[in-house]
Amino acid sequence: MPDTIVMKFGGTSVADAERIKRAASRIVKQREAGRRVVAVLSARGKTTDELIAMAEEVSPRPDPREMDMLLSTGERISCALCAMAINDLGHRAISLTGSQAGIVTDTSHTKARIIDVRADRIRQALDDDLIVLVAGFQGVSTSRDVTTLGRGGSDTTAVALAAAIGAEVCEIYTDVAGVFSADPRVVPTARKLPQVSFEEMLEMAASGAKVLQLRSVEYARTHGVRLHCRSSFEESPGTVVIGEDETMEHPLITAVTHSTEEARITLTGVPDRPGVAAAIFRALADANCNVDTIIQNEPREEGRDAEVSFTIASEDLRAAERALEPIRAELGIAAIDTDPEIGKVSIIGAGMRSHPGVAAQVFETLATREINIEMISTSPIKISCVIRSEAVPEAVQALHEAFELSLAEVQRERPIGQEAR
Ligand code: ADP
Ligand code: ASP
Ligand code: MG
Fold first, then answer.
1. For residues 251 and 412, is the Cβ–Cβ distance under 8 A?
2. Which protein residue has the closest C-alpha to ligand 1 atom 9?
3. Which of 3, 95, 161, 215 would suit a FRET pair with 343, their CA atoms being 20 to 30 Å apart?
4. Contact 279, 333 (CB under 8 A)
5. CA torsion sign, 308 to 314 to 316 to 321?
6. Which one has a higher pLDDT value, 56 or 412?
């Protein structure tokens, strides 16, 4: 059987008629090379943002089920238009909604998880020699409602389909040439990484490098999907995400990532007894809010109240506040404060596991720029600092420079401070 590939085009790559035609010809080129093609498309340009704004114009708290009905339309438009363009190039294409493509999700509206892919209709269409276009970012829930997969979710649609149909590769076509050592919009000298391990890519996606949605990386790793992230505007190869055992390079530091789309919640006057943290974070989990860095200050004297702070995605802030209100009364928490102006910078590299000097160098770099660190969290291959959001670009540039990530030759694993040979 010929190779099957999945090609995913992001919003910027299908933003206008010209770009849709360009995506169509790229798809056709693969078909003419003898491959069977499933293409996943995102909504055009800023369509998803515009749809969200439309909902907020009519309702301060849009119903999540109706929100998904609305948001799913953006990717359907792209697919129908691209199918028309492909037909005009003399090939046969069919566009499908997520539901028609057999993407089954749980019932968490606006953040649904894919639980099954029933790809028989896609397989049938491929057997009939059709190019299949699937609307990204959406599925149908186990209670038969339209769902969406969270911002950036078309990446996950593409990976899930690649796994279900056994594609050779899942290609993510986007507006940058691959995965870089930092967001190239913030660091123009950032270096394109020819390959990155799943382990590092997961940390990068989790800490703000939105070039691949976190869930798509998790899904690809679990299902053994080969991911290739590349430019939709030029032909050159991009970044391949590979298993740790296949990695050729073992850099000390691979990338600097950042996020300004987080907020901090601080609870003061929190009773200091067992079960309190459990009640707070259970309420947040039940509201589907993903909590990141958590800091709890122990009271200095026994019986006094504690303070708990944590960060959360800005889009979850309202849901978190609602979830905490009943807990506040129940536990007798004195105050709940929110700070939407925080940002986070993170440094990621599999080589730092065995090198104790990295954290010190990160803190020194931020100190020389007079950037105050408000919270710190770490994993074996990541150090994250919460700082003021306005300081984020400077912090990213300073860290990128301090760890010499622009160099053509990757900084090899070696003790901090030791000169490269
Ligand atoms: P698409 O619409 O194609 O899905 P996204 O906007 O979701 O594209 O992701 C691509 C964007 O991710 C780039 O334009 C870039 O600004 C941003 N980005 C952030 N960090 C990185 C990184 N480390 N490497 C590449 N791109 C990054
Ligand atoms: N259109 C959706 C978004 O803007 C999904 C995606 O682009 O992957 O988040
Ligand atoms: Mg994206």
1. yes
2. 211
3. 215
4. no
5. positive
6. 56
| Ligand 2: nearest atom to the Cα of 137 | 5
pLDDT tens digits along 314-364: 999 999 999 999 999 999 999 999 999 999 999 999 999 888 899 999 999
**Average confidence score pLDDT of the chain:** 94
Domains 4-175 and 245-421 share a fold: no
3-state secondary structure of 409: coil
* Domain definitions of the chain by residue range: 4-175, 245-421
Q: 3-state class of 160 per DSSP? A: helix
Q: How many CB atoms lie within 10 A of CB 95?
A: 24
Q: Which residues pair with 180 in a beta bridge?
A: 192
pLDDT (tens digit per residue) in 285-325: 999 999 999 999 877 777 678 899 999 999 999 999 999 99
- Give ligand 2 pocket residues (Cβ under 6 A): 10-11, 42-43, 48, 74, 136-137, 151-155
Total length of the chain:
421
205 C-alpha to ligand 1 centroid (Å): 10
Dig out the tokens for 349 from the structure. 């590299």
How far is the C-alpha of 413 from the C-alpha of 300, rounded, in Å? 42
Q: Could you tell me if 199 and 350 are in contact, meaning their C-beta atoms sit under 8 angstroms apart?
A: yes
Q: What percent of the chain has pLDDT over 70?
A: 95
The set of residues, in sequence order, having a beta carbon less than 8 Å from that of 146 and lying 6+ positions away, is 68, 69, 72, 97, 98, 99, 138, 139, 140
Choices 3.40.50.2300, 3.40.1160.10, 3.40.605.10, 3.40.50.11460: CATH for 4-175: 3.40.1160.10
Written as six digits, the tokens of 113 are 């998880």
> Which amino acid, 421?
R
Closest atom of ligand 1 to CA, residue 12? 2
Task: Report residue 245's pLDDT band, with 50, 70 and 90 as the boundaries.
Answer: confident
CA separation for the pair 169, 227 (Å, rounded): 6
CA distance 292 to 20: 37
pTM > 0.85: yes or no: yes
